[in-house]
Design goal:
2 copies of one chain form a homodimer. In chain A, the strands form 3 sheets. In chain A, strands 3, 4, 5, 6, 7, 14 and 15 form a 7-stranded mixed beta sheet that branches. In chain A, strands 10-9-8-11-12-13 form a 6-stranded parallel beta sheet, sandwiched between helices. In chain A, strands 1-2 form a two-stranded antiparallel sheet. By secondary structure, chain A is α/β, with parallel strands linked by helices.
């Protein structure tokens, strides 16, 4: 175990992509805990598109990370010392530990004790059985509500949330079309995850592919990306379609917001219901979601796709993989086992 | 009574505005009715933004008016002869009579018998107590659901639907801000209809006016217009705001759809629910709506604003008043009394 606490501190707000100027790696002493606190060793750090948004000094659903503060981030860790009855030594916990090797839990900054499921990899707790799984599950259950036979389009379908959403929709009997970047990801969607069709957004004929794959129109759009492909999806929405507005990753690095979808009027003509949602509003349903999701995993109907990066110091580089689309499935960074 | 049937026939589809090339005025014989039909004399024709959309040969919620067909339009008329038990001579009826002086009702093309309310002007049946009133009522009751004290913004607030929506929201105890074009309309909104504030979209400082009038943000957007003002409204939506997507008149004359709202991402960040709706899905609620709306009219809480144009032959000119914003409230054309 390290005898110091390395931490990534926000040095300057990025205009576009995160660069080597964005964070500073500092080395502090391991925190000493007081009564009511628990010391947690960070094991796995979750890398999520939302991390990028937290660096912008603009109004959002949480305050931005402050200059000089440790970078905010979801992670999984192990309690190594506790002076709080809610935590016991050796326990696995999950929450906003931040980009640091050691963190402190307290009643004011609580962490979620992990309910370990036999036969499930540790990384899955940050993905399918964690925030990403809950995001996909709530988005489909509460907003998208696909009926058997309906056509569901999932953007970033090879990503952490998209791959779960696409599998849940498939389990429910919908016709599922995934949008992803590159032939490899598209093959994975149809061959390994059992989707009905995949659209390669990097191919010059992506629009033709989308039209061919959704010849009866689109009933549910599980939207993670935004931009011109969302626009093309909006133009193909059916009567009473639902848009689960979960993410808009294509614009997260843009200093100025791009124009919105030209097919906006189709939301009116087709009586579309669009609902923006942020998973943190739905944490109370984590138990219910994990029960169903882990059941499907046990039956072999649902699997975690993941890309693991090794080494704490790789964090600022690894996060950009999400925007380059070089990760497949959940992107996690392993700090220690 | 005229002894012929003048009718406006669609001659060519307009690219932008309706022009003198769009329709042809033809004169036919008065239809002879058969068993199962009723002959109706057109009295008042309703002019609505939706009329323009029906001229475009693009997929929409109804098929476009065909070249050579009589222009589709809502109207109010009187039954002058009937061979159908559903209609009796002298009865007032409402429905898609079209732009013609005489129309035929049948079971295949039914009209709605009018429930006359004492003390209400005939024009109100096409406005507050007709389709426009139902639109405003359903949009607020089912989608917007403003709570007392919440801030509701209504665009085209001096228009046929907007003026009713703004008054209903005021009756319900919301803080209501109307957007309208010109000082005269704005004064009418605050002084005559009792809105809390009005924003003049034609003033160079319209954005400052909007900010000042919605200092606590916006909880409900009853959207009739679209374009840059909708974009500014979207940027000010509060947590869990609702967008009643009722109309997008600013683009109805555009051959190519304009870019969508740049503040689109705010729908995600603020967990906004947006619902497109078309009033024709809700005709079954007309009775309930008219009961409540006519009650408010009787109590003096709700009034019909209207602009009346005289003369059947004025139809193609009068319709453009909606896009120039020269009408106040419901725009109707009086054919006969």
């Amino acid at each position: 175990m390290p005898e110091s606490n390395r931490r990534f501190i926000l040095r300057s707000r990025p205009e576009g992509r995160i660069t080597s100027e964005t964070f500073e790696l500092v080395e502090d002493a391991i925190p000493e805990i007081k009564v009511g606190e628990a010391l947690v060793r960070t094991l796995w750090i979750s890398l999520d598109p939302a991390n990028r948004g937290w660096l912008n000094d603009t109004p959002s659903y949480v305050p931005p990370v402050g200059i000089g503060e440790v970078m905010r981030g979801g992670a999984l860790g192990r309690v190594v010392a506790s002076q709080n009855d809610a935590y016991r030594e050796g326990q696995l916990v999950m929450g906003l530990l931040g980009w640091q090797e050691w963190a402190v839990a307290s009643d004011a900054a609580p962490l979620l004790p992990l309910v370990e499921v036999p036969g499930v990899s540790v990384g899955a707790y940050l993905g399918v059985l964690g925030i990403n799984g809950l995001t996909a599950w709530v988005g489909l259950k509460d907003i998208g509500r696909p009926q058997p036979g309906e056509t569901v389009v999932v953007s970033a379908a090879a990503g952490a949330v998209g791959s779960v959403a696409a599998q849940i929709a498939t389990i429910g009997g919908a016709r599922v079309v995934g949008i992803a970047g590159g032939r490899e990801k598209c093959a994975l969607l149809t061959e390994r995850l059992g989707l009905d069709a995949a659209v390669d957004r990097k191919a010059s004929d992506w629009h033709d592919q989308l039209v061919a794959a959704t010849s009866d129109g689109i009933d549910v759009d599980f939207e993670n990306v935004g931009g011109e492909i969302m626009d093309a999806v909006f133009a193909r929405l059916n009567l009473r379609a639902r848009v689960v507005l979960c993410g808009l990753i294509s614009a997260y690095n843009d200093p100025v917001p791009p124009p919105g979808p030209r097919a906006f009027a189709n939301l009116l003509i087709q009586r579309v219901r669009l609902q923006g949602f942020i998973v943190f509003d739905h944490l109370d349903r984590m138990g219910e979601a994990v029960a169903e999701l882990s059941g499907w995993m046990g039956e072999g109907k649902l699997e975690q796709l993941e890309t693991v990066v090794e080494g704490f110091e790789q964090l600022p580089t690894a996060i950009n993989m999400l925007f380059d689309g070089t990760n497949i499935g959940k992107l996690v960074l392993r700090v220690a086992d």
